[in-house]
Amino acid sequence: MNTASGSPELIDKFVEFLKSKKLRKTPERFALLEYIATVPGHFTLDMMQQHADESGFHVSRATIYNTVNLLVEARMLRRHDIEGLPTQYELASTPPHSHLICTTCHKLKEVRDKYFIAFMNTRKYNAFNTQYYSHYVFGTCSTCARKRKRNAVTTKKK
Ligand SMILES: [Zn+2]
Ligand SMILES: [Zn+2]
After folding, report:
1. In 10 A of CB 91, how many CB atoms?
2. From the CA of 150, how far away is ligand 2's center (Å)?
3. Ligand 1 mean position to 48 CA, how many Å?
4. Domain spanning 1-94: which CATH class is it, in words?
């Protein structure tokens, strides 16, 4: 749901953050950020490792983990710990959206529910300043529903 066009902004933000933390601006950290900027939607540490390996860019799991955590701390990335799924990350600049999660195959789909977004925009909570929210909807995807139906039919025939 995001494009690579935001990448110079992301780089500036990360440079500022690393400076404020007195951390080194290593090429690995920026190469990983460049990759993140091109991912549409969610990604996992495994996806990052795979991408690095495939592009012949040698980076350790520890560096990936460390970079992602720094980006979360810099509020540039959001982390999603969803039951049954590996930890997911996405750019904090991604527009508001909902996550549909199949509890059978654990597939995650992002949707923009304009009614829900409009509703959330009207919400004001007492003594609380909302920055963002994460919305998860759990259920069964159409593929799993079809499989279940088929299995039910074959069991009946027996
Ligand atoms: Zn499913
Ligand atoms: Zn998302």
Report:
1. 20
2. 31
3. 24
4. mainly alpha
